[in-house]
Amino acid sequence: MASITIRNLEDDIKQRLRVRAAVHGRSMEEEARDILRRVVDQGAPPRNLAAAIRARVAPANRVELDLPAREAMREPPHLGRGR
Q1: What is the pTM for the complete model shown?
Q2: What is the SS3 string spanning 25-82?
Q3: CA-based angle 4:7:8, to the nearest 5?
Q4: What is the C-alpha separation between 45 and 26, in angstroms, rounded?
Q5: What is the rounded distance in angstroms from the CA atom of residue 46 to the CA atom of residue 43?
Q6: What is the mean pLDDT of residues 22-33?
């Protein structure tokens, strides 16, 4: 297992971590491991681009748009000699 050291941690953050660990009945170290595990697992990238796009736009408010009626295609120009 690997180890890390966190330097320059604000006193307020350390105190809140200590309280949170106590509420959960574990050490600050175990609490920090649990927080890191959950955050890293949440940020796992989607498996493919389509899933990433779907996840990004799914919570958006959707609007139904009326599509205008299509008109008939116009006659293409004649480019040959004869005219």
Answers
A1: 0.51
A2: CCCHHHHHHHHHHHHHHHCCCCCCHHHHHHHHHCCCCCCCCCCCCCCCCCCCCCCCCC
A3: 155
A4: 30
A5: 9
A6: 95
